[in-house]
């Protein structure tokens, strides 16, 4: 069985968004986020990975 890729996206305002793969935590896409803000978001995603994965599984009923 192929493992499902887990991906989250965040959108602050129109035309500005960012997405991360969760396993491993890797930037998937970025539109309009400054590099210093991107590093902070990546740090927060990494630190909260267990919570984000639990929420992902709950949302997708996995």
Biggest sheet overview? 3 strands, antiparallel
Structural class: alpha+beta
Helix content: 25-40%
How many structural domains are formed by the residues?
1
Low-confidence stretches: none
Enumerate the strands of the largest sheet in spatial order, edge to edge or round the barrel: 1-2-3
Q: What is the beta-strand fraction?
A: 25-35%
Our Rg estimate from Cα atoms comes to 12 Å
Q: Choose one word for the global shape.
A: globular
Oligomer: single chain
Report, as a whole number of angstroms, the end-to-end distance.
Answer: 14 Å
H/I helix tally: 2
What is the N-to-C succession of helices and strands?
EEEHH
Query: How many β strands by DSSP?
Result: 3
| Rounded average pLDDT | 86
Commentary on this structure:
- The chain is an alpha+beta fold and 62 residues long.
- It has one domain (7-59).
- The protein has two helices and three strands; from the N terminus they run E-E-E-H-H.
- A three-stranded antiparallel beta sheet has the order 1-2-3.
- Strand 1 and strand 2 form a beta hairpin.
- The chain is globular and about 35 Å long.
Task: Quickly describe the structure.
It is built from two helices and three strands; from the N terminus they run βββαα. The protein is of the alpha+beta class and 62 residues long. Strands 1-2-3 form a three-stranded antiparallel sheet.
Question: Topology, please?
Answer:
Blueprint (H helix, E strand, L loop, with lengths): L6 E7 L2 E7 L2 E7 L3 H13 L1 H11 L3
Antiparallel strand pairs: 1-2, 2-3
């Amino acid at each position: 069985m192929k493992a499902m890729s887990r991906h989250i996206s965040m959108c602050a305002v129109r035309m500005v968004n960012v997405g991360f793969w969760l396993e491993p935590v890797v930037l998937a896409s970025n539109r309009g986020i400054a590099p210093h803000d991107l590093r902070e978001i990546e740090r927060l995603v990494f630190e909260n990975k267990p919570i984000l994965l639990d929420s992902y599984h709950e949302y997708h009923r996995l």
